[in-house]
Design a protein that fits this description.
57% of the residues lie in helices and 7% in strands. It has helices at 5-10, 15-25, 29-49, 54-63, 72-75, 80-90, 94-105, 109-133, 138-146, 152-155, 169-172, 174-220, 225-257, 268-271, 304-313, 316-319, 351-363, 381-401, 427-430; strands spanning 288-292, 295-299, 331-332, 368-374, 408-413, 435-441. The longest helix is centred in the middle third of the chain and has 47 residues, at 174-220.
């Protein structure tokens, strides 16, 4: 699995730094966090696009020993390594990048420019440290950066794209463009071949039909009906043959010529096959009505709300002798997610599940709970613990504000202590370790 370097960098750009930057630049924390969320993929994308540039690789190597990670706010603005590197990465596009980020996040251009330096410093410092810790030479760093090309666009926040920075994918990842062009050319060739084949089939079919009709006319003395019926039938036959042949060729081309952005061939036919023995695609979960003493809550069947209500209704909580009997059973939030690097801003759709938890606690006033926060194995562990603790405290405070604070006995951030997925696994695989959970307590 290729390593997502953005996950390594997040530990350097946590809530503490966001708060300090907001204070220093005179901006809101939400604006700073939003800007960082847009700048980080852009900077990593710039490095990935220059993965084979010796100057860029050298800058990353130097950054690991420059101490830049120890003073991101004060040491990035005028650092010659950062200034030179940004020029290499973006050239005359820096102004457009800064303007786009400022507009997107609602902060000033000056603040956006300073954050660009800061994020670049955090990025090269972190990548340089990782390279040093893992004995990666220049080729190893280039390989690591090249691996990022396939994930950058998908990590940009909604409302931003490479094009909005004036950095179209065709300008950054030329190999992907060439692959697309090659696939398009092949598809055109196949379709043209299909049309030619269809024409031959139509001509042959039309000849046979015409001969048959002529024989019928001769045998039956002819009839004016064939003067208009024969052309109509020929037209229908021609359309049918053309449609079937083109459809067949286009489907075959799509299934055998698809490539991902890293240049690795992808067989879409095998990926979507329903043949025996092939795993079916995961079925998306949908919210259902979960009964809470006659009141319907929206949640997943078998999800957090469903499990908690079932446990309470079966007197599992009432019959638990003490906290030790409850401490090993945690219920993971299905919908509650924080914005990247934030411990105070939830993603859209999160509040509904918090409201459900409030409703459950109010329906069972004797029940007590604890909140747990978790991260994956990437990043600095001290920062992970701090972030997970802040998020657990945020949930606890939200529940107190909703009137059930007395039922929340504690909140604890565990960082990556209980993470199971390797740090080098894909971001999607490690998502299982990044969660908020709740358990009953006494």
């Amino acid at each position: 699995m290729s390593l997502n370097v953005i996950d390594l960098i997040k530990g350097q750009l946590g809530p503490a730094l966001v708060s300090q930057a907001a204070s220093q630049f005179g901006e809101s924390e939400s604006g700073i966090s939003k800007a960082i969320g847009g700048l980080l993929p852009a900077v990593v994308g710039g490095l990935a696009n220059n993965a084979d540039n010796p100057g860029v690789v050298d800058a990353i190597t130097k950054a690991s020993s420059s101490g830049i990670l120890g003073n991101l706010l004060g040491g990035s603005s005028n650092n010659p390594i950062i200034t030179s590197l940004l020029s290499s990465l973006f050239g005359d596009k820096i102004g457009g990048l800064v303007n786009s980020i400022a507009s997107f996040s609602g902060i000033s251009n000056n603040s956006a420019g300073s954050l660009l330096n800061l994020v670049t410093g955090a990025t090269v410092g972190t990548v340089g440290k990782y390279a040093a810790d893992n004995n990666l030479g220049a080729s190893g760093i280039s390989s690591l950066l090249n691996d990022q090309k396939g994930i950058i666009s998908s990590l940009l926040p909604a409302g931003l794209s490479l094009a909005s920075f004036g950095l179209g994918a065709e300008n950054w990842f030329g190999q992907a463009k060439e692959t697309v062009s090659s696939v398009t050319s092949t598809a055109k060739d196949n379709i043209a071949e299909g049309v030619a084949t269809a024409r031959e089939n139509v001509s042959e079919g039309a000849r046979e039909i015409r001969e048959q009709f002529e024989n019928n006319n001769n045998n039956q003395g002819g009839g004016s009906i064939w003067k208009w019926l024969l052309p109509l039938l020929l037209l229908i036959a021609a359309g049918y043959f053309l449609w079937k042949q083109c459809e067949k060729k286009q489907t075959t081309t799509t299934m055998t010529s698809t490539s991902d952005s890293t240049g690795t061939s992808v067989d879409t036919a095998s990926a979507t096959s329903t043949a025996p023995g092939t795993p079916a695609a995961p079925v998306a979960k949908t919210d259902e009505n979960i009964d809470l003493n006659g009141v319907s809550l929206k949640g997943y069947k078998g999800g957090m709300e469903d499990q908690m209500i079932s446990f309470l209704k079966t007197d599992g909580y009432k019959n638990a002798a003490d906290d030790a009997a409850l401490k090993d059973k945690w219920y993971d939030f299905d919908h509650v997610n924080f914005k990247m690097g934030s411990s105070t801003e939830l993603e859209a759709g999160s509040q509904g599940q918090l409201d459900n938890l409030v409703a459950i606690l109010k329906a069972f006033p004797d029940a007590k709970i604890k909140i747990g926060g978790y991260t994956d194995k990437t990043g600095n562990e001290a920062s992970n613990v701090k972030l997970s603790q802040a998020r657990a405290d945020f949930i606890k405070a939200a529940l107190a504000k909703a009137g059930v604070g007395a039922q929340v006995l504690g909140a604890e951030g565990y960082g990556s202590k209980f993470a199971k997925v390797d740090a080098k696994a894909s971001d999607a695989e490690r998502a299982a370790d990044r969660k908020m959970s709740v358990r009953f307590a006494k």
